[in-house]
Amino acid sequence: MKKVILLTGASSGIGYQTAEDLAGQGHIVYGAARRLDAMEPLKAKGVKPIYLDVTDGDSIKKAVDTIIKNEGRIDVLVNNAGYGSYGALEDVSMEEARAQFEVNVFSLAELIQLVLPHMRKQKSGRIINVSSMGGRLTTYFDAWYHATKYAVEALSDALRMETSDFGIDVSIIEPGGIKTDWGFIAADKLEASAKGGAYEEQATKAAKGMRSQYSGNMMSDPKIISRAISKAVNSRRPRPRYLIGIGAKPLVFLHTILPTRLFDYTMKHAS
After folding, report:
1. Residue tagged active-site, from 30, 140, 145, 199
2. What's the rounded Cα separation, in Å, for the pair 132 and 104?
3. d(CA 111, CA 224)
4. How would you class 75 by CB atoms within 10 Å of its CB: exposed for 0-12, middle for 13-18, buried for 19 or more?
5. Best CA proximity match to 43, nearest among 75, 11, 69
6. Which of 6, 16, 81, 176 is the most buried (most CB within 10 A)?
7. What is the Cα–Cα distance from 117 to 8, expressed in whole angstroms?
8. What is the C-alpha separation between 225 and 182, in angstroms, rounded?
9. pLDDT of res. 180
10. Whether 30 is catalytic
């Protein structure tokens, strides 16, 4: 069945790939991002680029209103936009911490609030939130990013219960390590945030470990995320969670069974 889909973060990486895949399956896909020029090639794939700045409430409302005007409905919302900034909790400025929450949590919630009335009216809909295995465990020097992803998990679980009587499904995508440039960018930010401070020695060592991990074969192909999102879109009964990628299931399992201090030790020395 052809569905009207709003997908955020569609100008690059996983969002770009997912927009292309969903359009190729015959869906009406509105790829949303600030950089319309970056989405121009997607037009040839059947994607409809739409401007959306997730930190601007007026922009969010305008995008939703435009889709409703054009299509009369929104069947699926994929909240894919997000980012992470590594660093010790003490070293990351409150401005940067708030910015992560704004993009990863509050903009996601605002989009949900705007599409829900239309989905309730339709008596159907799907909300797919791209989280991370980092919403179920915590790695070294990434407190603020994990805090946002734990928040996405909690919001999604609560929302699933709240909307179930209206025919609306809520799914969470929880990728493990994915082979993208993000790991190298995060390592650079970690080193920069700790330079000259109390955590410099540990952060430098952790950043070196991150670069080694992202340079090797211990990361999954980004396409596994677009495939998981496609399953959540197309399945008759989508799963509440899609825990995917190399290391995701073993690490979440270890987090469940190991004593807390032993898991902490494992994560510190894995970096």
Report:
1. 145
2. 11
3. 25
4. buried
5. 11
6. 6
7. 19
8. 15
9. 72
10. no
Shortest CA distance to 86 belongs to which of 175, 216, 181, 185? Answer: 185
Cα angle value 221/11/71 (rounded, 5°): 110
* Residue 221 DSSP label: -
- Rounded Cα distance, 17 and 217, in Å: 21
Rounded CA separation 271/137 (Å): 14
Q: How far is CA 270 from CA 114, 141, 205, 208, 264, in A?
A: 41, 12, 11, 11, 10
Tokens of 139: 């790695």
- Whether the Cβ atoms of residue 129 and residue 172 lie closer than 8 Å to each other: yes
Query: Amino acid letter at 69?
Result: K
Structure tokens at 112: 């949900």
Domain ranges across the chain: 4-270
Which helix (DSSP H) or strand (DSSP E) does residue 7 occupy? strand 4-8
Question: Quick count: other Cβ atoms within 10 Å of Cβ 223?
Answer: 13
Instruction: Name residue 134's beta-bridge partners.
Output: none
**The pair of three-digit structure tokens given for residue 197, joined into one six-digit string:** 């401070």
- Predicted confidence (pLDDT) per residue in 58-108, tens digit: 999 999 999 999 999 999 999 998 888 889 999 999 999 999 999 999 999
Is the whole-model pTM more than 0.90? yes
